[in-house]
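Our collaborator T.R. sent over the components below with a one-line note: 'Predict the complex.' Nothing else. No constraints on interfaces, no templates requested, no preferences about which chain binds where. So this is a plain run: every listed entity goes in together, and whatever single assembly comes back becomes the starting point for the next discussion.
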Amino acid sequence: MKMNKIFNPFHEIAGSKALFLGLLAMLATGLIGYFSHTHFPDIISIKYIPVSLPLWYYFIQQLVIWLIPSVIFYLLALLGASSSVRIIDVFGTQALARYPYVLASITGFSGSMKRFGEYIIEVAMEQNQEASISSFDLIMSILIIVASLLLVVWMVGLMYNAFRISANLKGARAVGLFIAGFAVSFLVSLFTGIQLYNFLQ
Amino acid sequence: MEKILPITCPGCRSEMQVKSLYCQACDTTITGSFSLPLFLKLEPKEQDFIMKFVQNSGSLKQMSKTLKLSYPTVRNMLDDLIEKINQFKKESHENE
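Returned assembly:
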């Protein structure tokens, strides 16, 4: 039952309550991301970029990766749902679905990931055979990568349940519309993320 | 212990009919073939949902507070119930 609530809190929470909690989670993600240099350039990616950028950029990034799928899923819900759909439910549940990424924003604090990134660049791009990495950094990096993947799966599961419940869709129809909406959201958010980053350069 | 009204035949899963009605006060028994009312064909939890819905003046917002569920979850439960009732009505029209 508890496991079910972790992957699907929307049976109990939706609408304005979900929106409030979701916005709080996104605010925390943006703020922690600012200090840990963790970026979310599209709806799923978690990237460590050690470049100083203004705080507002992290908050705008959070808004972009929430608003784009929310608008797309709302339009798909209007097309696919057989009964009425409340906009506050779609936007609220999609906001709350992003809460696992509060944990993702912490991953950037690890120095191991930074050193692992530098090691990969040296070996793969600069062909430096003498490059080395400590066992601790290697294990920590692998653990962080696995944890990040789990967070992605967790968030995508939440996004699906948010869409399914807020639009009252079931079975193949729900899965099909979600995959289509997710793919479009990913591409649009990726494009918008690049534009936003370029704007700052 | 509360008895559960069987609405489908355990032998062939067809819909059960009422064959006799009995008055405890005057010991009268009426026999015949009566269809079950649509409400009784629903699951106990669905009957309970309808009762609560009426008691909450048909307000889904109030229902969500009573059941401690989100608004879309309650609305989805109602939609599923409407679909089931429509299916029952369709089947009864086909049988007539």
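Summary for T.R.: The mean pLDDT of chain A is 90.
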